[in-house]
Amino acid sequence: MKSLLSLRVNGRQRDDAVSGNLLLVDYLREVVGLTGTKIGCDGGECGLCTVLVDGKAQHACLTLAGSCDGASVETIESLSDGGRLNAIQRGFHEKLGAQCGFCTPGMVMAAEGLLRTNPDPDEATIRTEMASNICRCTGYVKIIEAVRFAADELKSETEAA
Amino acid sequence: MDGNGMPPAPITSIGEPLPMVDGPEKIAGKALYTSDFYDPSALAGAIKRSTVAHARIVSVDTSAAEALPGVHAVITGSETDEGHGVLPISRTELPIAHDKVRYKGEPVAAVAADSIEIAIKACDLIVVEYEELPAYYTAEDALAKDAVDLHDHREGNIERHVEFEIGDVDGGFADADLVHETEYHCAEVCQVQTEPHAAYVEYDGERDELTVRASTQVPYYVHLMLSKILKMPKSKIRVIKPYVGGGFGCRTEALNVEMITAMLARRAKGTVRTVVSREDTFITHRGRQEQTIKIQMGMTKDGRITAVDCKTIQRGGAHSGYGIVTILYAGSMLFAIYDLHNVRYDGKRVLTNTPPCGAFRGHGTVNTRHAFENAMDEMSKKLGLDPFAVRRVNLIPELGFTASDQWINSYGLPECLDIVEKASGWKERIGKLPPGRGLGLGCSHYISGASKPVNWTGEPHATVNLKLDFDGTVVILTGASEIGQGSNTILVQCVAEVLGIDPSRVKVVDADSRVTPKDNGSYSSRVTYMVGNAAIEAANNLKGMLVEAAARKLEVSPEDVECLGEVYRAGTQDEGMTFEEVVMAALEGTGTITAKGNFDTLPESWGGKKYRGAAIGGTMAFSYAAQVVEVTVDPDTADITVDKVWVAHDCGKALNPLTVEGQIQGSVWMGMGQALTEETSYHDGLLISGNMLDYRVPTFVDSPPIEAHIVESNDPHGPFGAKEAGEASLAGFLPALTSAVANAMGVRVHELPVTPDRLLQLLEDKERKMRSAAE
């Protein structure tokens, strides 16, 4: 049984007929074709599929696509502005927050969600707030530096504006 | 002169903390990993797995599966009678079990269907009749006298028994002031790279050819094994490695996932996409084996090691995998870190009815090093010596060959010790910390690539091609596998450095067998050293052509041409030619330029001949690491918090300090997982930890700050002096942790992982003993 799903994905309106059991992560990857969002586990363990639903970080593998009707979903593909990395992405690039890169989209989206609600988190806050995202390459040290870099960048951008 | 009036100069790339050249793609979500390939026509592949641990397969009935609408191909063990494996002498594992299954989860059939739901349903409809055999889940059970052999060619379930004695061990013990024996047990651990295994295979029915994309560290092995099991000429197979989400060793072998997908694609005459679950990725395994290590060590009263006797047993799982190599490394890597002369080794690799183990980061060395360093720490306590003093008195006094004939040309361990001793405040703090807090030291080392390749073909160890065309872009063509460790970035830096050009002018095309030179792959930390050296040679060859072209245009002899990277000139007053002008001059009459570079290891580095298999452990350069771990233990719950780690790693010249730091921190942290939380568990051979909750990978909140220091004991043969950076720092964490806990609580946990349960038991035992002694 399919029903109509109307939502915004990365700012663009879509209407798709989807099954009631379709997961948001499969919808994004297979229906919309946005493969930036990754799958690293069999459900809810790794955080690789983290996206923003109405601005809040959420596991797309624990979210039914149908539950996003009327919502705004943002994925990693939405962050680059005019092809340029945003502040968080730049932090991940310059501070080596990404090695193999497979956890990176989810990690960046978790950081994006965090900084929108708390633009100046300290190390302990970053550790707690991002604890549901697993990385197997970095030991998290440089991810924390990347998020702090982004917070500082955003602060100076805000001050300049 | 440029606009600032400064003379032009070659641009420096080596030693610069350059962010990864492929970072933006990964961070923007544009990088395509194997599971990101979709095609509307692609079929979904699924694998049916054995539900029994050891059995003869009586029959496999696929009729119901084949009759299911939407099913395009069903294959069983009869699809191929060719085995696969790493070593030419042990290629006995079948991609799909045929006569026998040897572990729960071994593939017994596979399906390609319109959707993954149909493929899984079809797998459920396949009926396998088994005649069960006794199954062995521990090395001890598999070694029992009356045990049935898992493999006909491996009597007594021993994959390999390695025995050697170098020097005079009994004499060494006689010279010792203290002879101490200790035993350690390490649980089986898994790589848990974040990307589950995947393969995407297109079959071209018109030409009977295959294009294979797979999440692999060694596309070359995939290519070889596909040709073998499919009985297809290598020329009809193209292997492409897309972006890979980590490996840490589990993808150094060709895995059944890609082989089964290829067989399905050929059978279905189409494209098949298989992405296995996290649970099945765990079952595919190739992790680090469960292992028991007994060490007897002799020491003089000043801490000098006079003899070592090491006996170890590894539970290898159901197939050979890298087993022979692993058990050999466990012996050979006793050497080349300290000045050892008298060593006896007895190592057994045992076949059991559990998923096959493989080459996990720090391959072969980690568990043995854990026991060895702990033995040193235990003895330093007995002798009343500082752990640093014990390491220092055993340092290798001069470069050259070890007693086992391993070749050491650079040795930064002394400096590593000095740095972490100072950074951690060891001298001021050891013995003076409040109760429940402790410090521990661990040292470790690793090879910079195995000097002898597994497949001895007479080819150079590494080959790199450079393409230079009218656009002035230098394209590196390399088969080396970028899996997140930064190999593409390092190669760009090597080439840019030699040419003195902006690294953004250098691009990489990697790991496509149609396009790039063959490479032995990303394992044993070989890429920076070997492929880096090949890249340097290629760049020097290219530079020679450019200098000659510039000389022709400038009408001087090549010796008089000064190469300043973006400018070539014939004298300081000469404005010279831009790089683009030199390129156009070089293309005149010849067109697109290809330059090539090779690297071969030197025979001196091929390891010893003192025992069978002694070549395993031979390398061009050893890297070294020392680390201090600080812990706080909760006296009531025995919960361990790692407060901080100070680590120093001798990687020779740090070609890229940023990526070197990332590698060091990642290694230390992975060692922490093994030391504290990670452990596979089985119930009657059934993996019950096949997810990331029961198998506890440390999270952000469990992970400490890791202060990484780089030591540059430049290697005379390394690329710009570089050595390995991504493995040596792992092993040292384990003994540093157990020693720190011992320092904090007065008890030493001899089993890994050091769980609160294990520690609490020891603390309670200790308290009981103290109480009864008092009574």
Give a description of the structure.
- The complex is a heterodimer of chains A (161) and B (775).
- The mean pLDDT of chain A is 97.
- Chain A folds into two domains: 2-78, Ubiquitin-like (UB roll); 87-160, [2Fe-2S]-binding domain (DNA polymerase, domain 1), CATH 1.10.150.120.
- Helix content of chain A is 36%, strand content 17%.
- The longest helix of chain A is centred in the C-terminal third of the chain and has 20 residues, at 141-160.
- Chain A is an alpha+beta fold and 161 residues long.
- Chain A has a five-stranded mixed β-sheet with strand order 2-1-5-3-4, sandwiched between helices.
- Chain B is an alpha+beta fold and 775 residues long.
- Among the domains of chain B are: 23-31 and 463-598, Aldehyde Oxidoreductase, domain 4, CATH 3.30.365; 41-135 and 194-284, Aldehyde Oxidoreductase, domain 4 (2-Layer Sandwich), CATH 3.30.365.10; 411-443 and 621-731 and 748-775, Aldehyde oxidase/xanthine dehydrogenase, molybdopterin binding domain (Aldehyde Oxidoreductase, domain 4), CATH 3.30.365.
- In chain B, 28% of the residues lie in helices and 24% in strands.
- In chain B, strands 3-5-1-12-9-10-11 form a seven-stranded mixed β-sheet. Chain B has a six-stranded mixed β-sheet with strand order 7-15-14-13-8-31.
- In chain B, strand 14 (305-317), helix 9 and strand 15 form a beta-alpha-beta unit.
- The longest helix of chain B has 28 residues, at 527-554.
- Chain B is globular.
- At the A-B interface, helix 2, helix 3, helix 4 and helix 5 of A face helix 1 and helix 17 of B.
Query: Given the helix and strand composition of chain B, which structural class is it?
Result: alpha+beta
CATH first level of the domain at 41-135 and 194-284 in chain B: which class? Alpha Beta
Provide the CATH topology of the largest domain in chain A: Ubiquitin-like (UB roll)
CATH topology of the domain at 41-135 and 194-284 in chain B: Aldehyde Oxidoreductase, domain 4
Q: By CATH's scheme, which homologous superfamily of the domain at 41-135 and 194-284 in chain B applies? A: Aldehyde oxidase/xanthine dehydrogenase, molybdopterin binding domain
Query: How are the strands of the biggest sheet of chain B laid out side by side?
Result: 3-5-1-12-9-10-11
Distance between the termini of chain B: 89 Å
As a whole number of angstroms, the C-alpha radius of gyration of chain B is 27 Å
Number of helices of chain B: 20
The termini of chain A sit apart by 50 Å
CATH architecture of the largest domain in chain A: Roll
Largest interface comes to: A-B, 54 and 56 residues
Q: What characteristic shape of chain A results from the CA principal axes?
A: globular
